[in-house]
Amino acid sequence: MVRIRYERVSGRSVERLAALSDGVFAVAMTLLVLDLHVPVRDAIHSEADLCQALTPLAPRLLIYVMSFLMLGIIWVGQQTQMNHVANSDRHYTWIHLVFLLAVSLMPFSTSLMAEFIEYRLALLTYWLNVAALGLMLFIGWRYAIKTGLVRDEVDAETARGIGRRIVMAQSLYALGALLCVISTYWSIGFIVLVQLNYAIGPSWWGRSRA
Amino acid sequence: MVRIRYERVSGRSVERLAALSDGVFAVAMTLLVLDLHVPVRDAIHSEADLCQALTPLAPRLLIYVMSFLMLGIIWVGQQTQMNHVANSDRHYTWIHLVFLLAVSLMPFSTSLMAEFIEYRLALLTYWLNVAALGLMLFIGWRYAIKTGLVRDEVDAETARGIGRRIVMAQSLYALGALLCVISTYWSIGFIVLVQLNYAIGPSWWGRSRA
Amino acid sequence: MVRIRYERVSGRSVERLAALSDGVFAVAMTLLVLDLHVPVRDAIHSEADLCQALTPLAPRLLIYVMSFLMLGIIWVGQQTQMNHVANSDRHYTWIHLVFLLAVSLMPFSTSLMAEFIEYRLALLTYWLNVAALGLMLFIGWRYAIKTGLVRDEVDAETARGIGRRIVMAQSLYALGALLCVISTYWSIGFIVLVQLNYAIGPSWWGRSRA
Amino acid sequence: MVRIRYERVSGRSVERLAALSDGVFAVAMTLLVLDLHVPVRDAIHSEADLCQALTPLAPRLLIYVMSFLMLGIIWVGQQTQMNHVANSDRHYTWIHLVFLLAVSLMPFSTSLMAEFIEYRLALLTYWLNVAALGLMLFIGWRYAIKTGLVRDEVDAETARGIGRRIVMAQSLYALGALLCVISTYWSIGFIVLVQLNYAIGPSWWGRSRA
Predict the structure, then answer these.
(1) Touching B: which chains, 3+ CB pairs < 8 A?
(2) Can you give the pTM of this predicted structure?
(3) Which of A31, A109, B182, C172 could form a disulfide with A129 if both were Cys (CB 3.0 to 4.6 A apart)?
(4) How would you classify residue A148: left for phi > 0, otherwise alpha for psi between -120 and 50, otherwise beta?
(5) Complete DSSP assignment for chain A
(6) Among the residues of chain C, which ranges form H helices?
């Protein structure tokens, strides 16, 4: 009985779940760059020195941009899902809390990959993190459909479309991760291409699927 | 007279108190992982080296996951309480500010326990922090009921149920902390089991209590 | 003309100003504790060692609690002010942005005082920061009254009361800062007492003023 | 078809985009100051020592204040733009995500300039960051107008005015950056003057343009 009352009230909590999510994403996105250290003053005596000291930061910056894009894609995905969801319950909240745990691990995975860019283990750790994000989003969506948390206007076609979208994206990331048997640079290049497709080209992609 | 006016206006502030809470939780949750340091580059020369350097991070990661779950449980508890509360006043706001102080201390307690996992003092510090969270939540709920801040639709049964839920959870955590007379690992294992029960099994738990 | 349109639209921005404020407060409050470092593992060999290593953290913790309370008091003050304000404009927004600049400096002032607890310069820096917070809140309130941004239901008595409240609190903090001619510990003790009065005893204080 | 549904739902997401933006700005603004390190205890033996140790922080503090003002100006700009926008879509969201990426890089650019205040490369990096912020804001505004995302009440005159405002400000920052051929201090001085004009004197500026 108490449980039923809990569920009734926590229906309003989609908003606070969204607020907590935005907070965690905002902190994680900004912390990514925190590992980009300014060169140590003592070794720099001219503009050329500074230029030389900043050059090794370029590949790191690339990794951070890639992670920012990844968090952006995932954020858009979570937001789209939540826009389709009318109510939340304890389980749905917990699925998203585990999702946020994976978000909060992204700065670590990113640092690891930025530091060990040519190591497969670093790339696989990063990919595992991204896969966990996709998995929790997918579980959340399936759960929302099964328990009737989604809005009434969401028809079966849209519901399947959103699920398929996650599976498709994650398959491409997995393929990218697999490319590390050739070289981790191939993996990163492929993943960045997939990301740009999602960030810049969604309408083209949407059309090609229709 | 001024005080009465203050109270009338601060009634709208439940939303800002919720917003501040979500912010503090979001930062605390993300900072937890900030102490997970990437291995130093110089000592790593192969995938095997990296694997070996990452292995000691595993128990630390476990502690962070445990703290994330704990903050998640506490956040769900605070949110449920606030959903039952129609208005706030100065005292209720201050009870929650002290609650947030305890939230902001969690990254420290967690780091301490992660660093000194087999030390009872570290575990007891962590437990004290968790107990402070539970205590402030409980005080907040009792205060809200006594001063009529709760919504009209909350009946005495629900009110008692929510209070009992906090007492029950905190008793289990205290029992877990007590297990450190055997070993801190027993304490951690027990607390994680209690957490999983709250995160994964609330419906089972709800049913068994009915 | 463009300016008039700007002002019309920025009227809705009180909410986003509040959201930004809650974010800055949440980050500042949580960062306070970030300077509380866990003892280094190597030097610790027993529970007694750990206890001894944690003891010097106690005064630091006190300073952090004090700063958290201070940010809490200031946050409640800003929130109360904003609840009385119906619209914002560019100038009001900028007054609060400078206010937030002072909020973001609090972790630095706090660290400085925690590190140099018996130095007058550290205490005065801290006090200057707190005084800047009070000053900007006061300027914001005066500006809101003069330009008619406050809600219609706010009468002259309430308006003056809120202003006086800031002046009163800041006078007490200034008095506390002045006590550093005797000792910085006197200052800190006095300020903590004033804070506890605001946090715990507002109804008593309100009554004694009526 | 799925794409059309996506767009319909993401119309509600302006609010979450605003929430994420406020979060990123709040973290970036507070992190700016995190690089302001408290002097090391061991070297300080008197008030005079502490004073001497704090003096070199003054120019750094100036840079942080300047960056805070810059983020404030940009935040006000983004907020004004979003207040004019009724709906969002995927592309608009992505333009603002790239904008937020530039925001999250500001603490790095600021640290770099604070550390290498007399180096042109540091100043140009900082300016590039600011220029990216302005560019993304401008692209976002143009896109919103072209695709009809702006509110109905926004007429062509206002639309052009907002765009021109960004171009004007960015031209002044570019001019400031150019002044580094003389000295980076000239650049900083000029940029601070432009900022103060925007922060303190918008009504004067608005009038002079009318």
Answers:
(1) A, C, D
(2) 0.90
(3) A109
(4) left
(5) -HHHHHHHHHGGGHHHHHHHHHHHHHHHHHHHGGG-PPPPGGG--SHHHHHHHHTTHHHHHHHHHHHHHHHHHHHHHHHHHHHHB----HHHHHHHHHHHHHHHHHHHHHHHHHHTTT-HHHHHHHHHHHHHHHHHHHHHHHHHHHTT-B-TT--HHHHHHHHHHHHHHHHHHHHHHHGGGT-HHHHHHHHHHHHHHHHH-HHHHHHHH-
(6) 2-10, 14-32, 47-54, 57-83, 90-115, 120-146, 156-178, 184-200, 202-209
End-to-end alpha carbon distance in chain C: 47
- The pLDDT of D188-204, averaged and rounded, is 80
Amino acid sitting at position C34? L
Which pLDDT tens digit goes with each residue over C75-119?
999 998 998 888 888 889 999 999 999 999 999 999 999 999 999
Q: Which chains touch D (3 or more CB pairs under 8 A)?
A: A, B, C
For A103, the closest chain B residue by CA position comes to B30
The shortest C-alpha distance from B205 to chain D (Å) reads 34
Of the partner residues A1, A9, A94, the one whose CB lies closest to the CB of residue B83? A9
Contact C32, B104 (CB under 8 A): yes
Which positions 89-148 of C are in contact with A (Cβ < 8 Å)?
A: none
Residue B83 pLDDT grade (very low, low, confident, very high; cuts 50, 70, 90): confident
Please give the ipTM for the structure prediction: 0.87
Query: Does the pLDDT value for residue A28 go beyond 90?
Result: yes
Chain centroid offset of residue A163 CA: 16
Q: How confident is the model at residue D201 (pLDDT cuts 50, 70, 90)?
A: low
* Other chains touching A, judged by 3 or more CB pairs under 8 Å: B, C, D
- Which of C16, C21, C27 has the highest number of chain A CBs within 10 A, making it the mutation to test binding with A? C27
What CA–CA distance (Å, rounded) separates B69 from B169?
A: 14
Residue D85, SS3?
strand
- Does D29 or B151 have the greater pLDDT score? D29
Which chain C residues have a beta carbon less than 8 Å from that of D80? 6, 9-10, 13
Give which of A198, A204, A179, A201 is closest to A190, Cα–Cα: A179
CB of B4 within 8 Å of a chain A CB? The answer is no
Over residues C108-149, the pLDDT tens digits come to 999 999 999 999 999 999 999 999 999 999 999 999 999 988
What 3-state DSSP class applies to D111?
A: helix
Of C82, C140, A32, C190, residue with least CA distance to D24: A32
Query: Which chain A residues touch C28 with a CB distance below 8 Å?
Result: none
CB contact D181 to B (< 8 Å):
no
List pLDDT tens digits, range C8-23. 444 456 888 999 999 9
